Amino acid sequence: MNQRTTIDLEQGWDFMQRGITKLKSILEGQPEPQFSSEDYMLLYTTIYNMCTQKPPHDYSQQLYDKYRESFKEYITATVLPSLREKHDEFMLRELVKRWSNHRVMVRWLSRFFHYLDRYFIARRSLPGLNEVGLTCFRDLVYQELNGKVRDAVISLIDQEREGEQIDRALLKNVLDIFVEIGMGSMDYYENDFEAAMLKDTAAYYSRKASNWILEDSCPDYMLKAEECLKREKDRVSHYLHSSSETKLLEKVQHELLSVYATQLLEKEHSGCHALLRDDKVEDLSRMYRLFSKIPQGLDPVANRFKQHVTAEGTALVKQAEDAASNKKAEKRDVVGLQEQVFVRKVIEIHDKYLAYVNNCFQNHTLFHKALKEAFELFCNKGVAGSSSAELLATFCDNILKKGGSEKLSDEAIEETLEKVVKLLAYISDKDLFAEFYRKKLARRLLFDKSANDEHERSILTKLKQQCGGQFTSKMEGMVTDLTLARENQASFEEYLSNNPAANPGIDLTVTVLTTGFWPSYKSFDLNLPAEMVRCVECFKEFYQTKTKHRKLTWIYSLGTCNINGKFEPKTIELVVTTYQASALLLFNASDRLSYQEIMTQLNLSDDDVVRLLHSLSCAKYKILNKEPSTKTISPTDVFEFNSKFTDKLRRIKIPLPPVDEKKKVIEDVDKDRRYAIDASIVRIMKSRKVLGYQQLVMECVEQLGRMFKPDVKAIKKRIEDLITRDYLERDKDNPNLFKYLA
Amino acid sequence: MIMADGISNLCNDLQVNPDDIVMLVLAWEMRAETMCEFSKQEFIGGVQSLEIDSMEKFKKKIPILRSQLKDEDTFRDIYNFAFDWAKEKGQKSLALETGIALWQLLFAEFKWPLVDQWCQFIQERHNKAISRDLWLQLLEFARTVDSTLSNYDAEGAWPWLLDEFVEYLIETGACTEKSDE
Known about the structure:
The complex is a heterodimer.
Chain A: H1 9-27, H2 37-52, H3 60-84, H4 88-112, H5 114-124, H6 129-161, H7 168-180, H8 187-215, H9 218-238, H10 244-258, H11 261-265, H12 272-277, H13 281-291, H14 298-326, H15 337-358, H16 365-379, H17 388-400, H18 410-424, H19 430-446, H20 453-467, H21 469-498, H22 530-546, E1 560-566, E2 571-577, H23 578-586, E3 592-594, H24 595-602, H25 606-617, E4 624-627, E5 638-641, E6 651-653, H26 662-688, E7 690-692, H27 693-704, H28 712-724, E8 728-730, E9 737-740
Parallel strand pairs in A: 2-6
Antiparallel strand pairs in A: 1-2, 3-5, 4-5, 7-9, 8-9
Helix pairs in contact in A: 1-2, 1-3, 1-4, 2-5, 3-4, 3-6, 4-6, 4-7, 6-8, 8-10, 9-10, 9-13, 14-15, 14-16, 15-16, 15-18, 17-18, 17-19, 18-20, 19-21, 19-26, 20-21, 26-27, 26-28
Chain B: H1 4-14, H2 21-29, H3 40-49, H4 55-67, H5 72-86, H6 96-110, H7 115-126, H8 132-144, H9 160-171
Helix pairs in contact in B: 2-4, 5-6, 5-8, 6-7, 7-9
């Protein structure tokens, strides 16, 4: 090893100082040749040597201090004065330049002094050279100027907000200083710049919003708000730190939207209601986009949506009510065209607002809920004494029956049925719908009025999907019954052709149904004419051969007969109900019969007799002459076969208006509900054994809610009935507590 | 077996009116099964447990029996007892007229101010036999709900007829509706 001569501090530093001065000249842009690798080597070696000399000639500590002082000296002598004399944008430019120079200086100096980093600094855990260099700038320049810089930046941002062009690259560079000065920590950016910038933003938009809200319509305001948000977002991507985006947008949203939400949504001629009223789909979509971003922002929008839909629906109900009350009083009970129109319109607004939910409101659950609640509100009101359940069932009937009022293509029918079933979801009395539906289905099936078997099955599938298998099992049974009945009829006809002796001489078609599936009807009420009794006997015999242990119940009220009326002018085939036929056949034996005689011979109630005699003597076809000849039937009337009767046609159908079944349906449903409530209470109590009254009612309502909305009083009555029947008892000490008695 | 005639004789001897509520207390003491009847066993057993061996002692017992009605628990026992005692055997509920007569008797003693309105209501709006639950709950209602109905809870488990009664009282103006809090 060569013996080195010791370098003393003064001599060594003198050499270093020359290097540093050269560096400064380069930074200041003075003509100066670049450092060659030799220059660099010499500088580095000097430091190396001065640090590796034996104590007391190890100058590590002194050099470390001098390293720092070099920066301080340069900053104080050159950097700060140059910054202090500049302002605003010029100051910012100078700062960016100075910062960039400073970093060059740190890079070079820390290379010269590199040896310190390797041993001296590492061993003593001192701040590294790079850090020392940057800290000098931070302590001397940044600390003094950051407030001024921040204000300059913010003022530029505000200028840009007002539409001026600004040097975005400059701002980006300045803000990078705030980030870089933190050396990994965001504290300087956040505390010295961001906080004030956010505050300014809030103030800026608060000012703007307070003007806009007064001057602009709701759509214009929203357009501006959306544009502002877009610009702010753009601003972040161009020169703010990405971590500012959420905070910045939140501020803007708060000032523009949260603060004025109510005022904005309630603007009289352009607010939420007006937009909904005028179908401003685009504005509504914008409203959703904007308000979905603020906390609980959608609640008031959804609320107004619900109010609007409810109002529209209620107006439809009102319209239908008015139309109904303008109709003639006697026709009020029959669900007519007006109600048909009503359901159509309800479907239309459902389509419309569901589209709103799906498109404008992007399928958000809040809006689905609002739509549901609105429909539940007005759909359960009913129109002119008919419940919505009945209206829907009638609507379906009109679509599904032959010659209904709706003339639609197959696809349109499918689509409409789909929509009716959707509406059913809003009806709380689903059981009532089912009962009305079954009544009407029965008429369609039994009187061959169903237009299309496929549609019948398709709506049942839809109902099943929505309400469950239990809901449709009876209806499906009915449809299946009819298929079976057709097969049965075929084998009956075969039986007759094999047993000519048994043939009653009258064509007979029997539809055998399964009791449980069908609505209940009166049976065996009529005194059948002898000819028909033979038919019944004959069929019974045939049925015996097919199956044992099955009881046939005959429902004459649903039968039809084709009979020949031998009138003097010509013979006419009369298509009548079994009731009407039985009445007419009485006149084969007698010429004149009194009301009382007819009633006794037929064994029917007054209601039925009045109805059928009216159809035969007062309606379009007067097969019977009545004395006195009035428009109504009275118990003192006398009837006679009208042998002079004639008509253009050879075959006429004499309709017998059906009895209004509404009351019976409602009674039946009521009875079923009592059973359902009983069953539910017993089910609950069986598992719970002891339960408080409130809880019991709640669980019961929940269990039954899928089918109907049981009223609390009804539940209470059923509880008391179950107590009387010893299924439950009240706790001796607490009357609010019920116990299950096994 | 002492039947109606016998009881009327007994009342004469004891110098009490057969309609006096004390006869109900006596029936309760004797654990009588049926109204207007004492079986031999009931009567003998009752007389023994009351330590009566002469007409004199029997007469003296009357005020003591009557005073038992003052005790709330005993009154409740007697009230509850009255339902089974007065209803037709084999029936689950009590005939309306018997019920009303008993209520008037019992609530005169208990001093329920709404008894007349109740009896009127039950005749007008119900007019059917009285279930045991209603019978038992009515005393509970009379005991706990004050006559202005201020502490009546419409959400409670009161039998529905009691809910209707409250509505009836409000409707007829006998009570004003609770001003909502």
